[in-house]
Amino acid sequence: MSANHRGVVLAGALLLLCNAVSADEVASSPLTIGGAIRFNYVHKSWQDTYPNGFVGLDTARLDVNFDDGVLIGSAQYRYNRYPKGQGGYWQHFLHHGWVGVRLTDKSILQAGLVKNPFGLQPFASNNFYESMAFYTGFEDKYDLGVTYASPPGPIEWQLGFLPRDGGSYGGGGNTAGASNRYSYNIVPDDDQQGFATGQRDHERNTFTGRVVAHISSSGQHEVGLSALTGTIRNATRSEGRDTRRNAVALHYRGGMGPWIVMLEALRYSYGTSHGVTQTYGGLDPNSFVILGAFGYPYPVAAKGDIYIANLSYDIPGTLGPLGGFKLYNDYSILRKRVGNYKSSVQNVSGLSFSSGKWVFYADFMLGKHHPYLSPDTGGLASTSVQHDGYTRRINLQAGYYF
């Protein structure tokens, strides 16, 4: 069976599974089963082989959730199938999977493949492709460990201990095995589908903490501080050279009425212990690390500052069967503090809306030195002179959530 046929069969199976659960069963059971099927139209300004863009299946996913008031749990498994214009490959992975308990004071303890409590939550973005923090491993990230969330109140805090990353899963069509995952982690480089640096690093024993204060009577304004520290298990561990990675972020979410502002300032440092041969293009091998997800690894500057500024407006009312309109502009920039590397920029202007179980995104993306917004695949570390200008990507998505 071809990869295209596998995608269609999986999408149909998810719909049948959802329809097999009656409304009465859903209402009476703490267990719910759902999922989503999403399709994209993509146009890349730098991709001459597809001047009119391309359409394809983006994701089919299965969600399982449990909540009886005390015991809670959630898991999601995804299948991605991308058309030739976007690599022509497929992969599958566990997005998250955890069990937990809601304590009598309404605090929550979770264990499993859990979300990192760091930065703006649940996302530092409004658009489908998220922010620069996502591509550097600091937004919408899931690792294996334990988290604790305090009871709701004017001051809330979260702690996490994550001894390992979420692991790699399966894929085909020339994907890099160690990067078949959802979350961007430090991963071993791949000789064929990566940069052939020989770096073989892993994330271990990460501690995260996050505290936020709600500073208005309505709780609409939230100011927070997040911190992270953990071990990088280097390939040279036999020589006692494990190193550390650290990050700290200040963040704010608030607004007035339909206007919402999200701001974040983040500084990170990935310590490394690479040998002189663990490099590419003559770069300092300790000026970058290899991160990977969605099938492919790429280099990221070992030290940097990320700034995020997002503005959104919720449009009231409906237009026929359509509603939930949100206009937004999400801006983020990575300023690299090593090697005189040039900054990477991402700006997304867009509109999201819904109709019943359908959710739609229309994103116009502008950026440079970014593996998803330009041909400069190594641009989150060193940059290529021939790709120094801004390039554009259009993403139109329709997703059915059940």
Task: Explain the overall architecture.
The chain is mostly beta strands and 402 residues long. The chain has helices spanning 3-19, 23-28, 132-135, and strands at 31-44, 54-67, 71-81, 90-102, 108-115, 142-149, 155-165, 170-172, 185-186, 202-214, 222-233, 243-256, 259-270, 288-293, 296-301, 303-315, 323-336, 344-355, 358-368, 391-401. 7% of the residues lie in helices and 52% in strands. The strands form two sheets. Strands 1-2-3-4-5-6-7-10-11-12-13-16-17-18-19-20 form a 16-stranded antiparallel barrel. A three-stranded antiparallel β-sheet has the order 9-14-15, with no helix packed on it. The radius of gyration is 21 Å and the shape is globular.
Distinctive features:
7% helix; mainly beta; 3 helices; disordered N terminus; 16-stranded antiparallel beta barrel; 3-stranded antiparallel sheet; 402 residues
